Amino acid sequence: MNKSVIFAGAGAGAPDLLTLRAARALEGADLVIYAGSLVNPEVLRHCRPECRLVDSAGLDLDEVVALMRKAVAAGQGVVRLHTGDPAMYGAISEQMNRLDELGIDYEIIPGVSAVFAAAAALKCEMTMPGLSQSLILTRTNGRTSMPERETVAAFAATGATLAFFLSAGNLEALVAELLAAGLAPATPAAVVYRASWPNQKLVRSRLVELAERTRAAGIARQALVIVGRVLERSGELSRLYDKDFSHGYRSLRADHYFAGRVALYALSREGREKAREIAAGLSPAEVFFPERLGSPRAGETSFAASGLGALVEKNWAGYAGHIFITAAGIAVRQIAPLLKNKTCDPAVVVCAENGSRVISLVGGHIAGANRLARRIAGITGGEAVITTATDSRDLMAFDELAALSGWRVENPSRIKIFNAALLEARPLDLLLPEAVFERYYAAQVNLRRLGEPAEIQAGLAVVLDPPPDWAGPDDVEILVLRSRSTL
What we know:
This protein is of the alpha/beta class. The protein has 15 helices and 22 strands.
């Protein structure tokens, strides 16, 4: 344990809600100052027998700081143990200010707040679509007055879920203010006394009856008041797990689609962590990093520091995509000897170690590097850098169309000719399914859809699934995209 001061959250009450980090801090402490009236004494079992325990209930700020200062001067580790999470009504700001003045280092370990233990006890989700997407944590006026703009009425007007700390003793006035603010008498409400403790109590009722029922239950303090329709659990379904909903780790967008096994290469600790983050959103994926960065987990392989080139060469044909969490120059030097042509090279993407830029380097269309870069950017929150000309102009390249549609480019030497014609807005006759044409090409006046192969007269044409016995006019440049189902 670092010999300084640690502010730690003891959690809501149940000793097994203490975080592992807080438990380790207690195990190494020489002095623990705790709020005896609020902290579960079972939590203190993590302390060593020789650790000094001081109940702060009878101490003022000067006395608490003096204890900390003396212990730190003696080279001892101090834990200031607060109930719940120190950030919520923990009165730690004034303590930290004093320590700053004294030049004493400190850190904060968060704890499980009583509000979340209360939600668990009530078996409710504080935010539900269609009901409330916000949770307001507040309190009523007491010996500590509320700021002028932070009124019960103002918060009630938002429609958010409301959680009131330190307010059970003034419940009648709170209910009256909520009703006066316009909340319906039947608004669901609850009081949770000593959430997660063995003597926990729950009161559920309509708002208008909440004070009466709470008093009947003998609750007057150490309780959370929750008000909001989320207690009904009658909101809309979340879109997060909707089969039609895309997000960084489950993208349904066509321009994010990438199928196939990927290899991720990282050379630093930061790069390794980013590779792991990306791999979690891609499947199947394998992470490779130097042995000096530690032992590999499942789905990871370490390699000798000088072995990146040999590793990439070995992996080259076995993966549909190669992702380098490195500088672009490193990636270029590794893959340069392995490149053949755009029809057979795998996708190669370079990602900055912080995920801010994701560059499609090789195999943008047919191999899917552009789509893979967009997919990775969706995971990291970064920007996909796509340099292919058609993508820069928001045009659907014909080799990209083939890749998205699962078609084979029968004469790939023509791809460059047709994509160039697309970029130059030259007239093209397209033999494509109507839905495909309408989605990607109908807005371009230089493109015409043909219904049957026989209608192709002159100029250029893209042909999908032509009849086996049709070769096309001799004077027509043809790019054939053939469905694999007809092969």
